Amino acid sequence: MRAHRRTTWLLGAVTGALVAAAALAQGGSGGRDSITGPDLRQWLSYIASDDLDGRAALSEGLAMAGGYIADHLREWGVKPGGDHGTYFQAVVVLGVKSANHSSVTVEANGQRRTFVQGEGVEFPANVGGKRTFTVDRVEFLGYGMSAPFIDHDDYAGRDMKGTVVIWLGTRGPKGLDPREHRRLISGRNRMATDQAGAAAVIGPVMPRFGRPGAAPAGAPGAAAPSPPGGARPAAGPPAAGPPAGFGRQYEPQVDFTTVQRLDDVVAPAVTGSDEFFDFLFKAAGQDYADLKAKAEAQEPLPSFTLRNVKLTFAIDADYEVVRTQYSHNVVGVVEGTDPVLKDTYVAFGAHYDHVGYATGPIVDGRRQGAPGRVTPGAESDRIWNGADDDGSGTVTLMALARAYAQGPKPKRSLLFVWHTGEERGLWGSRYYADYPTVPLDHVVAQLNMDMVGRNRDDKPSEENTVYLVGSDRISTELHNLDEDANASLPRPLTLDYEMNDPSDLEQVYYRSDHYSYAAKGIPIIFYTTGLHPDYHANTDEVDRIQFEKMARIGQLVYETGWKVADLDHAPARDNKGPRAGKNTHGKLAQ
Predict the structure, then answer these.
(1) Which of 43, 68, 171, 424 has minimal Cβ neighbours within 10 Å of its Cβ?
(2) pLDDT band per the 50, 70, 90 thresholds, residue 248
(3) Which residue ranges form the domains of the chain, and what is each CATH number?
(4) Percentage of residues of the chain with pLDDT beyond 70
(5) In Å, how far from its chain's centre is CA 286?
């Protein structure tokens, strides 16, 4: 709960400066052992305090948090890595209207028909840049799902790279709970394009589960042009200016919000109508009515190639930017020692935003305007402090920056990015991946932390456990380096890979900032201690954090980062995909 009311934005800024000054006096000698629980507690006590109003993206509270981080980086000797020689990278958030004229043309066995947007097919509002391409390998994958826990895997033994994946059955096969498995059920388009490498995917109209995700990340490309929406503003946190919301606000209706390039190449995820599927399957000599009936009954569906079928996608949308907003990533750099390798980087990340505060009163025992869950008995607390999500990652990243800046230096340089707007759809990391402050092809790995301060489900049996996601998907060598790093610790942690499974119910691989880097082909490791009863609740507060465990995770990330940064080569990108799972222990064969 709020202990006192901050009467003006200026008083809050002064309070933050005083807290920062007290923390800066401590300093440290650097190195792995400088990452300690008491420091993490002190920093988090400010980052997750009521004074920052829940650190919502685009808010004054988040700007104050950014200024607090930057003050520490400056004192520790971490070099600015943002715009114009500052610690801040302006993130341009665009509200866009879309006039979409995209189409799909089906050619099969001498028949040809074009389905345009709104007439048999629906494309997302953000379909990326204009282009036309044709695919002559079209695969029907039944339910289009990998769910080994119910002995169902439509992808088993099948290479889908460069194909068009077709699937049916909005509820999936029998054995799935629409609430428990909602992310798996609704994530099939992403499974096809982002994980299996399909060129496009077409499925039926889906019910919406949970919060809508952002458009898929684009493929790696050439050096980015100037950011969308015009020139970057002068960098720096707006905490020294008037409060957020000062002045008249412009709130147009938008079709989508994005921080990414509007000319990105995006794999189409198309929704087809009965009319579309009937023509497609009939032209290929298949009975759509029979397949649809089986899918609605959740009966087993076959998988087969649609013979003699060719699909042409004409991606054609005109975009109008009708709203531009600014937030900021905080970026710092510690230079490496090798005259050549110091031009390459190991990146470390966390997001420093959360979801804000409730704007409404309590009515009939319920808090109105709540940005997340309200814990029973805590209805009077209107601030979502986000101590674990992701205050824990934020301050652990601060400890890492200090440890490298004030201790020994590896061969490569170290890049530290505190991302804004993760809670709004990976804003900061998506923007950084499109508009990096260092060449993205010089980043050899990215290590991301999000929620590293608790035990999963608050179980005492989890007190030594940290979950790793994505460590083996792009680089087996990176996975093995992390295993070696853990073994070198005085008290090794228990590394659990359960959430790395592609059938993970929470689909964690896609849900934090590491994914923006992985989508560009950069090897990543995501560290988390998992969900708990206070996840996105107003009771995610500092007194529930396990600081010694958090410090040990920070030490693991430090050791892994050091091993990567001191290699004479970049970790090999073998792109073998997820192999480590719940019962995986130790290193993998390369």
Answers:
(1) 171
(2) low
(3) 9-92+327-565 (3.40.630.10), 102-220+261-315 (3.50.30)
(4) 88
(5) 39
Query: CA–CA separation, 442 vs 427, rounded Å?
Result: 22
Concatenate the DSSP letters of all residues of 243-293 into one string. Answer: PTT-S-------SEEESS-TT-B---EEEE-HHHHHHHHHHTT--HHHHHH
Give the confidence band of 21 by pLDDT, cuts at 50, 70, 90: very low
Separation between Cα atoms, residue 536 and residue 149, nearest integer Å: 27
Query: What are the CA-CA distances from residue 76 to residues 88, 151, 462 (Å)?
Result: 17, 53, 34
Rounded to two decimals, the pTM is 0.87
Q: Per-residue pLDDT for 216 more than 70?
A: no
Phi and psi angles of residue 569, each rounded to the nearest 5 degrees, phi first: -145, 160
**3-state DSSP assignment of residue 203:** strand
Is residue 373 a contact partner of residue 532, using CB atoms and an 8 Å limit? no
Spell out the residues 6+ positions from residue 88 whose beta carbon is closer than 8 angstroms to its own.
66, 70, 82, 235, 236, 237, 328, 329, 330, 331
Nearest to 351 by CA among 298, 403, 388: 388
346, 380, 275, 306: which is closest to 564 by C-alpha? 346
Share of the chain above pLDDT 90, in %: 81
**What is the spatial distance between Cα 320 and Cα 564, in angstroms, rounded to a whole number?**
43
| Neighbouring-strand partners of residue 32 | none
Q: CA 366 to CA 523: how far, in whole Å?
A: 44
Backbone angles phi, psi at 388, to 5 degrees: -85, -40
Judge whether 20 and 46 are in contact, CB under 8 Å. yes
Determine if the peptide bond prior to 390 is cis (ω within 30°). Answer: yes
**pLDDT tens across 136-163, in order?**
999 999 999 998 889 999 999 999 999 9
Closest to 451 (Cα-Cα) out of 396, 506, 497: 396
Residue 199, both tokens: 């060129």
Element (H, E) at 312: strand 309-315
Residue in the block written with tokens 């980043």 = 443
> Measured between alpha carbons, how far is 413 from 187 in angstroms, rounded to an integer?
36
Residue 267 has which token pair?
A: 């794999």
Greatest alpha-carbon span in the chain: 78
The DSSP element (H or E) to which 401 belongs, if any, is helix 393-406
Cα–Cα separations (whole angstroms), residue 274 to 100, 277, 526, 548: 21, 5, 40, 57
Residues forming beta bridges with residue 349, ordered by sequence position: 417, 448
Task: Calculate ∠ Cα 505-150-530, nearest 5°.
Answer: 20
Question: Of 409, 513, 411, which is closest to residue 470 (Cα–Cα)?
Answer: 513
- Answer for the pair 214, 425: CB distance below 8 angstroms, yes or no: yes
More confident residue, 248 or 98: 98
